[in-house]
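Blinded run. Sample ID left blank on purpose so nobody reads anything into the name before looking at the predicted structure. Input follows.
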Amino acid sequence: MINDLNHLVTVVIPVLNEEKAIGRVIRKIKEEGFYNILVVDGFSSDDTFHQAIKNGVKVIYQKGKGKTGAIETAIKNVETKYLVLLDGDCTYDPRDIENVVTPLRNSDLVIGVRAFGRKNIPTFNRIGNKLINRIFNQLMGTNLQDVCSGMYSLKTDFSKNLTFKTEGFDVEVEIAAQASKHGKISQVPIRYHDRVGRQKLQPVKDGIHIVYRVLLMAFKMRVNGIPLKGEVLPLQDDDPTRILSHTSARARS
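Blinded prediction complete.
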């Protein structure tokens, strides 16, 4: 089965040492009818690269550091109209890809809000995410519910105009900040599962770094006279099995 959106979408999976999970992730994506899959490997020391190759997808090594380097590398290599990003550790559900892509008809960024399976997010991480969301929304004038989500989609043309100053797990807030000022953002509910393999996020260290990045971006926007006032529609559906086509909103610039 080939999904009707297949020719429009590249599914990007940034990976680092995910040999136990990457094959399963790729197979589940193909089960949903998406075959344009790009794995960007951050020079894994295990068998991740070969496991991905064995499952019949394009695999490239990233340029640059951290997750940001992987995403920048992916954006430069994607040629389809849309791209979807999700982690290669089985936490995000490929059944949600279509839901995350559909609102791109009227949006530039669609964030998958981890609304189902939140128990699979460690308690400390949930607290940290809530704090980061609150700080981000207060400073950026938005109402995003999951700014640190690792599953989201972008219009490729829009993504190629993004600029990156980060290197790590703060890349999602950097993308959201730029989209809230220069594009349209939508939010859709998605599932979240227990991860396979070792967690790479260091909650305290990375959480502090993300908050610092948000504060720094807000300060620079204020200095440069960019209005800190965005508008994003809240979730309007709580069922991830339905395709959502209603959640676009233009951020006021």
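Unblinding after everyone has recorded impressions. The two ends are 42 Å apart (CA to CA).
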